[in-house]
Write a structure and sequence with these properties.
Blueprint lengths: L1 H21 L4 E6 L2 E6 L2 H28 L3 H12 L5 H14 L3 H14 L4 H15 L2 H14 L4 H14 L2 H13 L5 H18 L3 H9 L9 H13 L3 H14 L3 H7 L7 H11 L7 H13 L3 H14 L3 H13 L3 H15 L17
Antiparallel strand pairs: 1-2
Length: about 375
């Protein structure tokens, strides 16, 4: 009897407190050992208060976790962020940050588990989760995994600007020029990449396509597909002329290259002129020497003229040009041509010195003379 009275009094006290503290009109009827008790309740406001308390605690844990990660205590930060996720109003953020903390520790297994939970908790944030995963994989150098992640994202959400930019950068890094060429039109429609980056990628793709062209027709067809703006690019012009020369079309290159240099004087193209094996080598040399009147101190032109003199067997003039080139701008290829010429002229020791000087320009340090060995093989 006494126990029952105590229970009833406790129920009345709880109802009384709830009524005045929360002012909620709801109630329930309790029948206990023939006693009927009307108990006033305030479930809504009481629940809201409890929710606010849990949310505040979760927010504090998340903040402390973020601070720990920012201070370099990744393990502690990861634990705090993960624990706060269960009571957080936005567990996605907690899981993503926990994944970052795990990534910074090199724990890819835990990183991927937090990302899995992030997706499971908020499926509508799939793009955010996949992008985060791809960025982590790229940072770790896991290029093949990143490629799979980004392609999955591309399937889920076509023309996602940031995903396309990451995919383009990855194709460029992997030197997958066919895939990058296919992606470029879509990249141009987005505003994620700087124009200079897109321009550089476009030029590189065209250059690789020209380098891979199997014959003259393929070179011409590839060149036809290049925009007019890019056809004046020196890198692409050089690749185009190289392709025609590989196909044996030297006379065509000599003529077109001369016309190009008339309006666009460019060092690499001038150098290339000396490598063209036109059928009329005398005419080609005269053309090069006519340019010397205006560009007499251009090392690229002097080297081209020297090579054309070598082809015309004008050894003395070739030597003069090569020595001038070496005095103005020494280079391994100039020394190589000079060494070959000196050998041709019977100056073996001078030729060896020229070759050594050329090799010294590409070696880590100066090359020393190899000591002579006696008949027994001893120094």
């Amino acid at each position: 009897m006494i126990f029952g009275i105590i229970v009833v009094l406790a129920l009345f006290a709880s109802a009384f407190a709830a009524h005045f503290l929360l002012a909620d009109p709801g109630y329930v009827i309790i029948n206990f050992r023939d006693y009927v008790v009307k108990v006033v309740l305030a479930p809504k406001r009481l629940g809201e208060a409890a929710g606010r308390y849990r949310s505040a605690r979760s927010g504090k844990k998340m903040t402390r976790g973020m601070i720990a990660v920012a201070e370099g205590n990744f393990a502690r930060g990861e634990k705090m962020l993960a624990r706060a996720a269960s009571t957080s109003d936005s567990p996605l953020f907690n899981y993503l940050q926990a994944a970052r903390a795990a990534h910074l520790q090199g724990r890819d297994d835990r990183r991927d588990e937090w990302l899995r939970l992030a997706f499971q908790e908020t499926p509508e944030a799939a793009n955010a989760v996949l992008l985060t995963q791809a960025e982590f994989q790229l940072d770790r150098g896991q290029n093949e995994q990143a490629l799979a992640t980004l392609r999955r994202l591309d399937e889920n959400s076509k023309d996602h600007a940031h995903a396309l930019a990451l995919l383009g950068r990855l194709y460029f890094k992997l030197e997958d020029w066919d895939s990058l060429a296919e992606l470029l039109p879509r990249l141009r429609k987005s505003s994620q990449l700087k124009p200079d980056t897109l321009d550089n990628w476009t030029i590189r793709v065209h250059k690789e396509m020209l380098n891979r062209a199997a014959d003259g027709d393929a070179v011409a067809e590839t060149w036809k597909g290049i925009s007019r703006a890019h056809k004046s690019n020196a890198t692409l012009l050089e690749a185009y002329y190289d392709g025609l020369m590989r196909a044996g079309q030297h006379d065509r290159v000599e003529k077109e290259l001369a016309a190009t240099l008339k309006s666009n004087w460019n060092g690499p193209l001038v150098r290339l002129f000396g490598l063209v094996e036109a059928s009329d080598t005398t005419k080609q040399l005269k053309r090069a020497e006519s340019w010397l009147k205006k560009h007499g101190d251009d090392p690229d032109l002097l080297l081209a003229a020297a090579r054309l003199c070598l082809r015309n067997e004008l050894w003395g003039k070739a030597r003069s040009y090569l020595e001038t080139v070496i005095s103005l701008r020494p280079s391994p290829e100039a020394y190589r041509e000079y060494g070959a010429l000196l050998n041709q002229m019977g100056e073996a020791d001078a030729a060896a010195a020229a070759y050594r000087d050329g090799l010294g320009m590409v070696a880590a340090g100066p090359l020393t003379a190899i000591p002579h060995m006696d008949a027994a093989g001893k120094h």
